[in-house]
Amino acid sequence: MQRLAPCLMFVGDQCGNAEEAMELYVSAFEGSRVTHVERFASGDAGEPGIRRARFEVAGSEVLAMDSPGPHAFSFTPAMSLTVELDGADALDAAWGRLADGATVLMPLDAYDFSPRFGWLQDRFGVTWQLNLVAA
After folding, report:
1. Is the Cα dihedral 72, 66, 68, 7 positive or negative?
2. What is the pLDDT of residues 26-38, one digit of tens each?
């Protein structure tokens, strides 16, 4: 068996936010859920925080972790989580949840490539592209 899942590593000033981010993401999309959480043990370098977690968003598995070590990188808009939705209400609800404290990269609007699309970088630095799929 093979499968691909994006992994979100919360580093720098975002380290320690993996659990809060997961909770936001599963609340934004109907049918999403956290499936596994392994926390750092007391006294570990990453404690408190998430050593490794798995959650499902819009039918896809995503991994998350906090990484306390020094890193020369963080999240970038060059890599986005893209969710295609078949209902405007579901898209608007997800956008509303993710947009709190976010930086909007492309406002939620109609574009020549989509009847409703928006791109944002959430308050944790993760970028999301939400797209309404025309029926």
Report:
1. negative
2. 999 999 999 999 9
pTM of the entire predicted model: 0.92
- Torsion, Cα 123 26 48 77, to 10 degrees, reads -40
For the chain, domains (ranges, CATH) are: 7-66 (3.30.720.100), 80-132 (3.30.720.110)
**Residue 104 CA to chain centroid, in angstroms?**
15
- Region for residue 125 given its phi and psi (left: phi exceeds 0; alpha: psi -120 to 50; beta: otherwise): left
Is residue 123 left, alpha or beta, with left meaning phi > 0 and alpha meaning psi from -120 to 50?
Answer: alpha
> Which two structure tokens, joined as six digits, stand for 105?
């990269």
